[in-house]
Amino acid sequence: MVAIYDPKTAQNQSTKSQNIIDLGTPEVKTDERVTLTIDGQEIDVPKGTSVLRAAAMLNITIPKLCASDNLESFGSCRLCAVEIEGRRGMPASCTTPAEQDMQVCTQNKKIARLRKNVMELYISDHPLDCLTCPSNGDCELQDMAGAVGLREVRYGFDGENHLDAAKDTSNPYFTFEPSKCIVCSRCVRACEEVQGTFALTIDGRGFDSKVSTGHDNDFLSSDCVSCGACVQACPTSTLMEKSVIDQGQPERSVTTTCAYCGVGCSFEAHMKGEEVIRMVPAKDGQANHGHSCVKGRFAFGYATHQDRITSPMVRDTIDQPWREVSWDEAINFAAKRLKSIQKKYGKDSIGGITSSRCTNEETYLVQKLIRAAFGNNNTDTCARVCHSPTGYGLKATLGESAGTQTFDSVMEADAVIVIGANPTDAHPVFGSLLKKRLRQGAHLIIADPRKIDLGNSPHVKLDHHLPLRPGTNVAFINAMAHVIVNEGLEDKIFIAERCETKAFQQWYSFISDERHSPENTETITGIDAEQLRQAARLYANVDKGAIYYGLGVTEHSQGSSMVMGIANLALLTGNIGREGVGVNPLRGQNNVQGSCDMGSFPHELPGYQHVSNDELRGKFEQHWQVEIDNEPGLRIPNMFDAAIDGSFKGLYCQGEDIAQSDPNTHHVEAALTSLECLIVQDIFLNETAKFAHVFLPGSSFLEKDGTFTNAERRINRVRKVMRPLAGKADWETTMALSNALGYPMNYQHPSEIMDEIAELTPTFSGVNYQKLDDLGSIQWPCTERNPIGTPTMHMDSFPIGKAIFALTEYVATDERASRKFPLLLTTGRILSQYNVGAQTRRTDNQMWHDKDWLEIHPHDAQERGIQDGDDLGISSRAGDTVLTAKITERMQPGVVYTTFHHPESGANVVTTDNSDWATNCPEYKVTAVQVEKVSSPSNWQLRNKEFSKKQTKFLPKNRPGKDRVKL
Amino acid sequence: MTVKLTNIIKMSNQIADNIGLHLDSDQAVDKVVNHIQLFWAKSMKHDLITYYQNDGNLLNEISQQATIRLVEIERENAK
């Protein structure tokens, strides 16, 4: 089989050829340089660079199998042997550092013979089934056999071998076929060095060596998190995507951006016609550098799932079956209803919600539609319920509503504080980068009510876990600042030069008060005072301290105060405006940063330009040729209140499932039922759509062009790889609705929308599609002064001149544990599922988390006679539901935890409408509850089951796509 | 009392509790008014004012003062 392999043909077919060349070993960063000669060509490289890499930089290809430039050199395959003048033998070029005046020969008869012998040994214990092998045409072993000119195997194939080793098919997305393994350890090293999970190891010695997932484990039951790093690293077909096994090698590749979390990984969509065969993390992706997680890498099947609704539908009331209609009819039906509502109830009686899952261009259009065609500012987005306090808090202190760093910046950090975030689950690719830095020795402080996996990662030392009580963040952050001030650890020079003096003095006097001392706040936060003091000293004393935070900071009644408290702490220690430091909000959804940037909030036009500012608003009015209301509109919770009150009657909701994701489900359902026209634009009949009158089928990220902006302000291109299943991309649907309402929109391509955004938004003024294609991505601000973007913010000055210390008094939330509700519920996410689960529930990720659990401490469980797996009734003042018990010491006594990935769980039936004082961001993280064993579902669950069943029956029987084969 | 009005009162008091501390009453009122002007919809401001004019007892001191200021601003704007 080897004999007939033609590498030239294989190269043309391979999608690998489109990836950037693998230089064999990682880049070495040093100013010291050495010059060496390889095959007569001189090259100057950083000292410490391997000979293999230096040769690759000269376009000299040395055969290799165990080497890859995303892994440390290993030197096991011996294929990259070279000769070096003055040295004995043939050293492996991957483990030999280049030296000054070194003379290297990469090819001669002796080397060729050695390489052929090495390959011969490999192939003597490898199945010769190339023609039927799934990696045929995309196999490094095959390539190397061709490269060294292997023509025969003198040893025969009858000796002892591994050809009968059993295949592990337990993982839903890839197989492990050990008979094809050459034990190069790339998978093991990828799991360690890239992902940081250490799920794989080499078991046994010598001939018995084999890749193992641990004793008595298969891939599914092991610690493997299915990130795909091992599959990517495997040079043979040993670890192989099941989709490639089923469908064969892809034929083309398109670079696009993942539509899951706020890391915004770049992927190569490997295609065959209009079918996605696999998603491979882009090596040159500037947010992910070739890494991925189980969601982006494998869980894309939802995009073509049979549940996709691909025809527009309308109905007069929600008690009626849906009628499939043409696009024109649906759009006109929606427009007519909205107009008639405005005529009857007034201009402000309708509004819309932009989607943080859609592109910047689509989000921009929806808010433009609302402001220009609806004629009001009743626009909001899901950031309201996640990171709106970030926008408020960072703008108030640093002058810009965004994080300050790149993800890569963490590799320079000396100490990292993670507050209310769970990066290994919710932002896994950044989590892996962070773990890499921690394994290099950076210090780690975690402030979280739960023990999160990051603190328990292999070879990561957790310096301090500060297990604060939910709802006491501000008391904690104030105590941290108090210690630093009290012990004189502040960065006086930074404060004098970069911060507003009067505000600092006022704050200094505020924070110096003894009420903020760790000893005095210990009874509030539950954090041991000495631990907190040590953590504060650690953060203040390192050269570079970085803070990463998530929804455990923002989703509180004092979310905005806490964000300002974090900014205060960074300013106090001079940890702003450099690499390795900063204030880093880990944004939830793929484009939540973008949806905020694009003017989704009711008080701000794109680029955070306030509607009340005549000059700024005037610019939009002139461009859009329409008058814009100069007062803010309603936020999502205000829309719900107004709907129940009867003054808000129509809502256009794009790509957002408010019925499942927003708190106090009873209240949300009452609001949705009060609407006379609910237009839902989504790819599935989500929970919100069950209350809708118009359903406009949405398009997945694979079906359109556009851009997403990730948590590091990076604008990344989204590229269309297939036609929209329903015939329209979301931006085209919004245009159609606007035109039907009488406000003309006529964009031919999303690039034209971006041009308009750039014209009206100062921080985007230098952004265009050509530049994005040329540079790969751009971090805003991108202006005349920063034409290729701004990786690190606030290096020389703040947008407001000098930064402002904000007074952040701790004000306890109204939501407190009581005799009736003695426990505090906090909510979060898990690795395999994403947000409301609409996407991941329609993939094999269900295998890891097919329902939401209630995590409870053994002490609380024992008190209530609760066993693992018991049905637990959980009740709050808002409502009650039933979840399954998981007893775990991750929790602290008195605190319980659940996720909200499954609609039938009704986690948000229990959460309340308490919210952040400044932004109305709901307080998901603190709900006083009681938990008890029960034997039947809650009334809400029973009602919801019936309602969902009825609504599903209302779908047309023979709708297109119903029989679509799940890929 | 409607849910909407309950929430309006609660939000207003929360803003006062969080912004108003450590400031003299004039400064605190300024800050609360500014916040409401920047972030609240017309209808919400109107609801707050109407509640204050009809009852207002559930508003804390700073919120009451801020609402009086909002009434004055509305009057100014109407001129």
Automatic annotation (TrEMBL), chain A:
InterPro entries: 2Fe-2S_ferredoxin-like_sf, 2Fe-2S_ferredoxin-type, 4Fe4S_Fe-S-bd, 4Fe4S_Fe_S_CS, Asp_de-COase-like_dom_sf, Formate_Dh-H_N, Formate_DH_asu, MoPterin_dinucl-bd_dom. Residues 32-110 form the 2Fe-2S ferredoxin-type domain. One of its GO terms (biological process) is respiratory electron transport chain. Residues 251-307 form the 4Fe-4S Mo/W bis-MGD-type domain. GO terms for cellular component: membrane; oxidoreductase complex. GO terms for molecular function: 2 iron, 2 sulfur cluster binding; 4 iron, 4 sulfur cluster binding; formate dehydrogenase (NAD+) activity; metal ion binding; molybdopterin cofactor binding; NADH dehydrogenase activity. Residues 172-203, 215-244 form the 4Fe-4S ferredoxin-type domain. Residues 947-967 are annotated as: Disordered. This is Formate dehydrogenase subunit alpha.
